[in-house]
Amino acid sequence: MAVLERDPTPVLTSEASLPLAAQSVVIIAFPGVVLLEAAQTLEGLAAARRAVAPAPGYDILVTSPTGCSVSTSSGVRLGVDAAMREVVGTVDTLIVLGGWDYDATFANPGVLPHIRRLGDSARRVVAIGNGGHLLRAAGLLEQRRSNARVTRSGSELALWLVDQDYGPGVAAKVVDWLGDSRAREAGGEQTCDIGALTVAPDSPLRLVADAVLSNPAGSHSVGNLARLACMSERQLNRLFSSEMGMGPARFVQRVRVEEARASLERNDKTIEMIAAECGFGTAETMRRAFLRVLGISPSAYRNRSNGCAQC
């Protein structure tokens, strides 16, 4: 039986005021999970653990419905530490991976009850891609709006967690250590391009999405967007999560990041000017958004897009 008995109380170091606590992270994998997303998540969290050593870092436990290793989308098997039913104790973060066969996972009668059990005791619950459907079916997205999250990639998820738990300095160190995979993201293979953020013509979100896409710097609070769509904030959040795999606030952030990314490539305006023009307000807000979405700072992105050999 996998017993999690870590003390969740933050441990402050004498050198920096960072909450460097051992945080139990339980990752749920199932047959057909996307290998790349699993690897990015595990590598990002492991890099953070090395970055904060000798202080305790993430305590990672990979689980599956049966406790057996699972075949990933590429056919490579992913090792598993325990069955979901065997995990007891305090869970800091519950992560549900995404994959091709998530619908078959619904057919397993023991999956959703264990996701609900683990999620109810967790400080936060997160998922990648269609893993969010499992969180939603377990009732965790509605219950935990402030500490539930669905991301589009493992790297985005890992960097968001690291930034939240240990701050942008550790997140930047993780980006540096992961090297080529982060460079590929920054180079555009996994950027948040506008085409991926559009919605279907007949979608009830079309008016809202068009308003954000046409004016990224506008006043796009969730309340304003809900009023524009003539629906409640709760209904708007539910629709965005269902159709886009993200909430409306995250959608606005991604659109602004894409607008800023394009601006960094095409002109020499200062980062402060671009941040203001794209709706971020400050350069620091834009830097945090870039780290979370692209895994790279605006200045580093500009250097790479300009062909800086040392960046």
Structure, described:
With about 300 residues, the protein is an alpha/beta fold. The protein folds into 2 domains: about 170 residues, Rossmann fold, CATH 3.40.50.880; about 110 residues, Homeodomain-like (Arc Repressor Mutant, subunit A), CATH 1.10.10.60. Helix content is about 50%, strand content about 10%. The protein is built from 15 helices and 10 strands. It has a 6-stranded parallel β-sheet with strand order 6-3-2-8-9-10, with helices on both faces. A two-stranded parallel ribbon has the order 1-7. Strands 4-5 form a two-stranded antiparallel ribbon. Strand 2, helix 1 and strand 3 form a beta-alpha-beta unit. Helix 6 packs antiparallel against helix 7, helix 6 packs across helix 14 and helix 12 packs across helix 14.
According to CATH, the fold-level topology of the largest domain is Rossmann fold
Strand content: 5-15%
The sequence of SSEs as H and E is: EEHEEEEEEHHEHHEHHHHHHHHHH
Characterize the overall form.
Answer: globular
Q: Outline the biggest β-sheet.
A: 6 strands, parallel
Tell me roughly what share of residues is in helical segments: 40-55%
The overall pLDDT average reads 80
What would CATH call the class of the largest domain? Alpha Beta
CATH architectural grouping of the largest domain: 3-Layer(aba) Sandwich
Name given to the CATH homologous superfamily of the largest domain? Class I glutamine amidotransferase (GATase) domain
Parts with pLDDT < 50 across at least 5 consecutive residues: 5-21, 180-195
Please tally the β strands and state the result.
10
Number of domains: 2
